[in-house]
Design a protein that fits this description.
- A hairpin with a 2-residue loop joins strand 12 and strand 13.
- Helices cover 22% and strands 33% of the residues.
- The protein has 7 helices and 16 strands.
- The radius of gyration is 19 Å and the shape is globular.
- Strands 3, 4, 5, 6, 9, 12, 13, 14, 15 and 16 form a 10-stranded mixed sheet that branches. A two-stranded antiparallel ribbon has the order 1-2.
- The N terminus is likely disordered.
- The chain has 248 residues and is of the alpha+beta class.
- The protein has 2 domains: 104 residues, Alpha-Beta Plaits (2-Layer Sandwich), CATH 3.30.70; 133 residues, Pseudouridine synthase (2-Layer Sandwich).
Length: 248
Amino acid sequence: MASIAGMGESIPAGVMILKVVVLMSESSLTNGGILVVYKELGMTSHAVVNMVRTYTGQKRVGHAGTLDPCAKGVMVIGVGRAATRTLAAIVAKEKEYIVRVRLGWRSTSDDREGQKTQVSVSEVPSEDRIRQALKSFEGIISQRPPIFSAIKVRGRAAYKIARAHRPLDLPARQVEAKQIELLAYTWPFLDLRLVTGPGFYVRSLAHDLGEMLGTGGYVEELERTRVGPYTKECALRLSDLRRPNTNP
C-alpha cells in the first residue's frame, strides 16, 4: 500500500496519485492514476471526464461523484483500469461543501437552474430559528433525492425522465450530515459549510430546510471543497491541463 503525502490515506499498490499542484509530466498523464481536478461553473461532469480522456489518451476514465453544471469544485478522476477500480472506495468517502441557500423561493430543480416560484413569507426567520432548524438535519437522516439527479430509475437517469415531464417519485434514502456550520445569514441568503457522507444531496437539504422554515429554498451557489483527503488546494485547474506531446 502507498500513502498520500501529508494525508495518511492508503491507496492500493500500483495506483499512482498524480501530482496536481503543478502541471503533470507527460508520463504521469499517459500512465494513469488518480487525478484531482477542479471543475469550473458551467461544465458537466461528463465533459470533464471527456477532457481528461482526450488529454491522457486513456479510454478508461471515470469519476468519484458527479457535480452539477451550476456547481464547482473538486472532482476525483480515475485514469486507467487500476485507478478506476478504486473509485467506488473514494465515492464512499466524506465530502465537504460550501453552499449558499436562497430562501423565499422554490425551484423545480432545487437550484438556480430550475423554474422558480416566489414564496409569500409572513415572517422572516431569525438566525436562532435557522440554527434550530439546521440541527434537525445533522446526523443520519431520511432524505429524498431531487428528481433532477443522476440516480438511475429503470436504467435511465432521473433527470432525463423529469425533463420529459413524466411523473417521478424517488424514494427517500438514509444519508448522513456529519457537520453543518452556519457561516453567515442575511435574508434571503444563508451560507453553510457541510461535511457529509456518501449519497447526500445538498439541493435536497436546501429544499427541505426551506420547507421546514416555511420560506422555500434552493441552492444559489455550491462548491465542493473536499472529497475524502483530496482538497481544492491540491486540485488541478483544467485550464492548466496540456495534451501530451504538445508544447504549452
